[in-house]
Write a structure and sequence with these properties.
By secondary structure, the protein is α/β, with parallel strands linked by helices. The protein has five domains: 13-172, 2-Layer Sandwich (Beta-Lactamase), CATH 3.30.450; 190-292, 2-Layer Sandwich (Beta-Lactamase), CATH 3.30.450.20; 297-476, P-loop containing nucleotide triphosphate hydrolases (Rossmann fold); 480-566, Orthogonal Bundle (Helicase, Ruva Protein, domain 3), CATH 1.10.8; 568-611, Orthogonal Bundle (Arc Repressor Mutant, subunit A).
């Protein structure tokens, strides 16, 4: 007999709450409501008795007879017997409905229409998740059930197990769906495009990045590698990984020619659980690879204008000019002797520019043999020449795409390459060695040299048209001997650096140490000064650097006797400064200075720009 009750939560056997599993939501049982109704009708057909099935919240999931049209309704006003089954996890037989102790709270006790009742638990994972009830309303059927009680209970037990297995199956399938969605979400979070195909090249799966890369072609009926990558590349992939062969890595281009994407493709074979062979393909954008390489490249890429040390007016103006021109895309030509810090200035300009999050790629035109310089700059296609790396190679210009390309010592670049660099600057595109299609590039070029490009042009060693292209924004770094007031700040910086590296505690420099540094001409500029301070720091044992800690070359040098004094460029620079001091920096003064020097006014202007001579630093 069912009595008015308050809804109780489902409990474990012996009444203990299962802490490992939350109470099953009614919606989960209602998901198999149609199946539960079939079970109820099957029981009713076999036993000729009304049946109802309730979940652990006393919601009627299925019913026959008078309960057929009540599915989905709450039984919270009729269910003390079911409640007790849910609490204990055991079956209950009520032989005297209306007079059983569980019926005492019921308002219909003593006049119940039921004659016999069996309530059997549906247990899943040591938890009672529902109840099957057999309800008898005639005395004849009640006597029949009483005589065959054990058979009825055994039959109900099998039916309860059947429902529990269906719930378990549903739970398992829901878990698979959830896991599949979770896995797909992870795959869609990858920055690389991902494809899986069978050994015939038929597309099986792809992530959202791949969908974006291939746009509408990936969702076409019968999409395959032929459709996505072309017959040639598809054939290479399928042949390479055939029968568990090698992993293929190569560059591909997708999309319309005017807006092609350059990708690095990697294909490898995999085996499914059923032993079938499929192919997994990843696609990475070259621009993204360059960004990652730049992000984790050396610490030198973090230079700023504040790393250009010095208190001289020349250095101060250099820092200010770098800040002004950093936001431009125009080409910069940095001139200065070896060791003055041309690359540091180039990196500082890059890190101040809108391109600072893109690559800074440096290449020294002197350090790389002429035969290899072209392939280093422009890259090459697969099979472009004997010994070429399989799959081709990206050039430095492509790696610098959207960033900055630093061409150090551009004055040493061969003439035939000067023409190709000029084309890059004019047309903003390159062609790899052995390539057929031009590749658009967006790079800012910063060039540097210590050579006299104007003289090289006159001698036919440097292209004049390239000179005009790279000399849009000229910048000059004065040699250290012309800005000796910077010695103090530079030495203090290097002392701090080597105190940390060498675990020293040097605090000061003696006056005689400073005097020797001042008297020296520094032909190697800041780089040489750094080496001298590193040497002195290694030799010193106290807190003060003295003359005895200097290399013999510096100690024994006589003021004015160093070879740097006889450097032709230094003499020329000093003579120009003297003339400008004498005649002034007005247009008329410069004309007089040019006449006194025996050169044309245009040549004088070029040399003033080259040596970074200003009205502030001629005194």
């Amino acid at each position: 007999m069912k009595m008015p009750v308050i809804v109780y939560p489902a409990v474990r056997e012996k009444g203990r709450i299962d802490s490992r599993r939350e109470v099953m939501d009614v919606s989960e049982l209602m998901e198999i409501q149609e199946y539960a109704q079939q079970i109820a009708e099957a029981i009713a057909t076999v036993l000729k008795i009304d049946v109802e099935i309730a979940d652990n919240n006393l919601i009627r999931v299925a019913g026959t007879g008078i309960y057929r049209n009540s599915t989905g309704s709450s039984m919270n006003r009729q269910g003390f017997v079911y409640r007790e089954v849910l609490r204990t996890g055991h079956e209950i037989v009520i032989e005297n409905p209306g007079r059983h102790e569980l019926c005492m709270p019921c308002r219909l006790r003593g006049r119940c229409s039921e004659k016999y009742e069996i309530a059997y638990p549906i247990n899943l994972n040591a938890q009672t998740v529902g109840v099957i009830g057999l309800l008898c309303f005639t005395q004849v059927k009640a006597e029949m059930m009483k005589e065959s009680k054990d058979s009825y209970l055994a039959f109900l037990g099998k039916m309860a197990e059947t429902i529990a297995l269906k719930l378990k199956e549903r739970e398992f399938l829901n878990g698979l769906v959830s896991s599949n969605r979770y896995l797909n979400s992870i795959i869609d979070c990858l920055e690389e495009g991902l494809l899986t195909v069978d050994v015939k090249g038929k597309l099986l799966h792809y992530n959202q990045v791949a969908r974006h890369l291939f746009r509408n072609s990936i969702s076409l009926p019968g999409a395959s590698l032929d459709v996505l990558l072309g017959h040639k590349i598809a054939g290479e992939i399928l042949n390479a990984v055939k029968d568990g062969g090698e992993i293929l890595e190569r560059e591909v281009r997708v999309g319309p020619r005017q807006n092609q994407l350059q990708l690095v493709l990697r294909a490898r074979p995999i085996l499914t659980e059923t032993g079938e062979r499929n192919i997994v393909i990843t696609l990475s954008q070259i621009a993204e690879i360059s960004r990652i390489v730049n992000r984790f490249s050396t610490h030198e890429a973090s230079y700023t204008v504040d790393d250009i040390l010095g208190v001289s007016e020349t250095v101060r103006q250099l820092r200010e000019r770098a800040k002004i021109i950093a936001s431009s895309n125009s080409t910069v030509l940095i001139r200065g002797e070896s060791g003055t810090g041309k690359e540091m200035l180039a990196r500082a300009i890059h890190n101040l520019s809108p391109r600072r999050h893109a690559p800074f790629v440096a290449i020294n035109c002197t350090a790389i043999p002429e035969a290899l310089l072209e392939s280093e700059l422009f890259g090459y296609e697969d099979g472009a020449f004997t010994g070429a790396r399989k799959g081709g190679k990206l050039g430095k210009i492509e790696l610098a795409n959207h960033g900055t390309l630093f061409l150090d010592e551009i004055g040493d670049m061969p003439l035939f390459l000067q023409a190709k660099i000029l084309r890059v600057l004019q047309e903003r595109q390159i062609e790899r060695i052995g390539g057929l299609n031009p590749i658009p590039v967006d790079v800012r070029v910063i060039a540097a040299t210590h050579r006299d490009l104007e003289q090289m042009i006159a001698q036919g060693e440097f292209r004049q048209d390239l000179y005009y292209r790279i000399n849009v924004i000229p910048m000059a770094i004065a040699p250290l001997r012309e800005r000796k007031e910077d010695l103090e700040s530079l030495c203090e910086h290097f002392i701090q650096v080597y105190n940390q590296q060498l675990n020293k505690n040097v605090q000061t420099m003696s006056d005689s140490f400073r005097k020797k540094l001042w008297e020296y001409s520094w032909p190697g500029n800041v780089r040489e000064l750094q080496n001298v301070i590193e040497y002195a720091m290694n030799i010193a044992s106290g807190t003060c650097l003295d003359v005895e800690h200097l290399p013999a070359k510096i100690r024994e040098a006589q003021g004015g006797d160093e070879g740097g004094v006889y450097n032709l460029e230094s003499i020329e620079r000093e003579m120009i400064r003297r003339c400008l001091r004498e005649f002034g920096t007005t247009v008329e003064g410069k004309e007089k200075a040019a006449k006194a020097l025996g050169i044309g006014i245009a040549t004088l202007y070029r040399k003033i720009a080259r040596y970074g001579i200003t009205s502030e630093n001629i005194s």
